[in-house]
Every structure is written in structure tokens, then in C-alpha cells.
Structure to design on (642 residues):
């Protein structure tokens, strides 16, 4: 049966996932992660069916308690009888293919709940990297009816911030005394945050951290006229503050939906994605060009100075650029 | 007269530079630095005339005394009645167009000597960046008859090491107690060094530095069967060791010329350059594609979900990739 599913053509896999088969969905995501022709086929099937889903990005320094927080959010959403998908993104990890990453173990509580679908993704595999794999995975989940999608990233590096910043609502998780751990990318985090969470708020320094954040928001150049990121305090391990956090996410969603900001952001993201697809396609073409007999001949002519590099490039690129 | 020269067509400028007019040469290098169509025209003129020149790269941490050393080398070569060109490359500087950078002032001693041509280049300007501008500038100097070309880079970052590593002989300049200042890129420096110079060798710690270098060379994986980088001690400010340094450069030149290593390296570099030209040409094409009416229409269709990003990309790339 497993072997059979592995060999199922994409349209049948997709239909099975639509019908609620979790293994088929997992297989679809593996194909997306690989990023070859089948990923594109899935993309074409998912794309027209997507758009109703809403993504919430969670990011913060390692150890900030994001997984515990995610687990608490899942619990809250399940109590509201909402279905949910979680993408845990680890740009630095070589593990992939649905493997449970490090502290993701905490989410295992929900692993047997059919209303919850948890998936880890890493950079390895997808030809276009996470910048293309993540939106494709989100759209597949969206298309098969998972309308709440949490995208959790494990760090505060450039890639994590970029991935998290592409969500519809981005939650930045900090801890009391957070400053040092994210020093390098504070500006990046300030820019993407729609909601700040001070997690482990029962620890010393929570009030100072709130004051720090308030001050940073006061001083920032960002346009907070229409939406100033609220600061919510939580204790992930006890679930304290989770309801308030989720209500704040809902408030932000209502704001971006009614103000037109959501439509703008999504249009911007799609344009960026299309640019990236085109750039990568041309990059692949460049690698194809710089090989083969004609390439060998031309480089020899350049070396022998019977032609120059620009004329050789023109010749390699005839009809292309 | 200056205005007239500014407007001179490239072939006439080139001929004037060939005839020894320094201002025309300076103008050629400015055009190369800008990197547009005229740069390519110069490239095509210079390419078949180049190949007799020999480049010596000098790199090392800021403050290692490279400019003083360069100035001493110039003095030595002038005493041998050799003509020389110096390209001072500063990837981090926004200054360009022949500006004298920072400590380059020391080279001013030679500024009025017609046998010496000194030029600073920075990243700003050339569309292809320094990776393309540097070899183009070297070839122009070579083509107009400057057969010794020193390429000095100001730091030990990735870009500096890459630029310096593309010379025919690469001299890495260190100081007593150098370890800390280049820690981050020791491996990169070890890889490109054909000759090590311990400059400021009259200072404390020179012997330890020599031992350190010897040990690093012993431990390195690099193939030193045919050429193990010699270590020369110099005091740039007094000129001590300069003759030995230059003799070592000449030894290395003789080695790479007779062993075939020089031909191999140059072929490799030309292939890399051709690849870079092709990649950049395609990248420019990608930027051109992602603009205009058709682009606007297609992105709107993608946003409206009447088409998907891959179909849109296919359509934008018809005939291209």
C-alpha cells in the first residue's frame, strides 16, 4: 500500500489528500520539498484552489519557547474545533522529509490528532530553496482545506526572518532579557513583527523587556499609524496568555483584511515569488549553457585569443539574452 | 581639451592611450569601471592585444603596510627601468574614478613618474562588480604596454581574497602577531598565497610568525610538491627585503611559466570570467523581463488566480529558458 502510494501519479495523490488522506498529503509535501517537475505539477493543481488559508508566522531566537508556544496555540485552536497545519522551518538543518526536529518533540502531543498536521521542512532538497518551497507548501495545505497554517522558524537569521516575514500575520517571540540573543537582527525583527510576544513572562525582567519593546516601537521609523504591534505576555508551559495572543492575531487579521493591507502584501509576495522563479529558471539555463562541446570550443578560442569573452558570450546566448 | 577627450570615441581614446597619453588611459579605465557598452568596446579592443602582461596580487589585513610595500616595490622596479601599473582595489569603498584612497597617499611619491601608473578602483559603478572590472582593467593596461601590473587589495575579506587570488603571482602580506587580524580568513589566504611576506619584520614576534607560517604550510592540504610558498621578511618603510621579495616573485613567475601552471590558471580564470559574463547577462535579462505591460498583466492574472506562477513564468520566458 505504501509502495503503491509512492508511485501514485500527482493528480491522484492530490485528490487523495483532498479526501483527507494524511499520508498522501505528507507525500505531496515531500515532492514539493524536492522541488522538481512533480512539485510544479502540484503547484499548478493547488494554486487555483488556494487563497482561503491564512498564515501566521512565528519566529524568535532558539530557546525562546516557540515550540511550546505553538503547542499551546494548537491546543487553543483545537478547543475551538479549528483544523490547523504547522510548518516548522529550519534553514540550518540538514534533516527534512517530515522528520521531527529537536524540540519539535513537544508538539508530539498533537501528532495523533487528525485535526492537526505537523510538518518539518529544511533547506536540503528543494532546488529553489526555502524561499520557493515554503509558499508552495503553504498553498498545498491551503488547497486541501487547512485554513489556519502556522509557519514556525527556528532562528532569527536573515533566512528565518524572511520566511517568517512572508506570513499574513507575523508573531515575534522574545524572552525577558532578549536583547543580547537577537542583537544582530533586531531591526529585521522590528520590521516584520505584527505582534510581539514576551514568552516566559513569569521570569525576571519581563517588565523591562516590555518597556524596551515599547521604546523601540516609539523610536522606529515604521508606519504604526494604522497598526502598532501589540505586546502580549505569555507563559507557554502553562498556557497563560495564549487566548489573549490568539485574540490579538485575530485582531491583526481583521485589520489587514479590512484595510486592504492583506491584499497588498499578498500581491507583493506573489510578484516576488514570480521574479524568483524567473531568476532561478534563467540561472539554471546559464548553468546548462556553460557546458558541452560548443562551450569547450568557445572557451578554447577565448584562451587562444581568436575571440574575446564578450563575443563568445554573445554566441552562447544567441536567442537568449 | 579635457572636454574633447571626454567625448573622444573609444577607438581613438584607445589609440591615444597606446601612444602613451596617460589621460586617455585614465579615461579608458573610468569607462571600464562604469561597465556599460563602452567598457565592452574597450574589452574587445584590448583583448587580442593582451597576454604579455604579468599580474602580481598583494593582499593582507588593513594596516599590514601593503601601500608602503607597494611603494618600495615600485621604487625597485623603476631602478630596474621597468614600467609598472598599480591597481588599488577597495571593495568596501564608495570612492572610485581614480581617487586616491586612504593610505594610497604614500604612493604619491611616484605620481609624477611617467613610468608608473596608479589607479584606484572601487565596487561602485561597474555593472558586473569587481569580479569583471578587475580583469578588464588589467587587460587594458596590458594591451597598452604595461607589462607589470600590481593589483593591491585592502583587506582579507572574501572579495579581496578572490580578487588577489586571480593574479599570476599572489603575495600575502602579514605582520608579526598577524594571527588575530586575519583569523576569519586564514584558510582563504593560505589557499591563494604564492609568496608570504612578513612585513614590519623589525618588530617583536617576527620569528614566531615565521614559525607559525611554516607550521601552517606543513599542515596544509595544499599541493606544495612543486611550489611551496616561500616566506620573505621585509621592512617596507626602509626597503629592507624588497629585492629579495621581488626576486622571489620572479622565481615564482619562472616556475609557473615553465611548469604550465600559468597557462592552466589563466585558462581557468578565463572560463570563470566567461561564466560570470553569461550569468550576469541572463540576470540582466531577468530584470528586463520582470517589468513592462506583459509583466503587469501576468502578475495581475496570477494574483487573480486565473493563472499560476509557473505558467506565468513559462510565458515570460518563451524562447529564453
Amino acid at each position: 500500500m505504501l509502495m503503491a502510494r509512492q508511485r501514485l501519479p500527482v493528480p491522484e495523490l492530490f485528490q487523495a489528500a483532498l479526501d483527507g488522506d494524511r499520508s498522501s498529503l505528507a507525500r505531496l509535501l515531500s515532492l514539493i520539498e524536492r522541488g522538481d517537475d512533480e512539485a510544479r505539477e502540484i503547484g499548478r493543481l493547488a494554486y487555483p484552489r488556494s487563497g482561503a488559508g491564512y498564515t501566521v508566522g512565528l519566529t524568535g531566537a532558539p530557546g525562546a519557547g516557540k515550540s511550546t508556544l505553538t503547542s499551546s496555540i494548537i491546543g487553543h485552536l483545537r478547543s475551538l474545533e479549528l483544523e490547523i497545519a504547522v510548518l516548522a522551518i529550519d534553514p540550518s538543518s540538514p534533516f527534512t522529509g517530515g522528520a521531527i526536529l529537536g524540540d519539535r518533540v513537544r508538539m508530539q502531543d498533537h501528532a495523533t490528532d487528525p485535526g492537526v498536521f505537523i510538518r518539518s521542512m529544511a533547506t536540503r532538497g528543494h532546488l529553489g530553496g526555502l524561499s520557493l518551497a515554503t509558499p508552495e507548501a503553504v498553498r498545498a495545505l491551503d488547497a486541501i482545506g487547512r485554513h489556519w497554517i502556522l509557519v514556525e522558524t527556528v532562528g532569527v537569521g536573515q533566512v528565518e526572518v524572511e520566511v517568517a516575514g512572508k506570513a499574513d500575520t507575523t508573531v515575534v517571540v522574545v524572552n525577558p532579557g532578549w536583547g543580547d540573543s537577537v542583537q544582530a537582527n533586531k531591526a529585521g525583527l522590528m520590521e516584520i513583527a505584527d505582534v510581539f510576544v514576551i514568552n516566559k513572562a513569569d521570569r525576571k525582567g519581563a517588565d523591562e523587556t516590555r518597556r524596551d519593546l515599547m521604546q523601540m516601537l516609539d523610536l522606529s521609523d515604521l508606519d504604526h499609524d494604522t497598526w502598532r504591534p501589540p505586546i502580549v505576555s505569555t507563559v507557554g508551559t502553562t498556557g497563560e496568555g495564549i487566548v489573549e495572543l490568539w485574540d490579538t492575531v485575530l485582531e491583526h487579521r481583521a485589520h489587514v483584511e479590512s484595510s486592504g493591507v492583506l491584499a497588498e502584501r499578498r500581491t507583493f509576495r506573489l510578484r516576488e515569488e514570480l521574479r524568483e522563479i524567473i531568476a532561478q529558471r534563467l540561472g539554471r539555463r546559464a548553468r546548462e549553457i556553460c557546458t558541452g562541446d560548443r562551450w569547450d570550443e568557445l572557451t578554447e578560442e577565448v584562451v587562444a585569443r581568436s575571440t574575446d569573452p564578450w563575443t563568445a558570450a554573445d554566441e552562447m546566448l544567441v536567442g537568449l539574452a
Remarks:
- The radius of gyration of chain A is 23 Å.
- Chain A is about 50% helix and 10% strand.
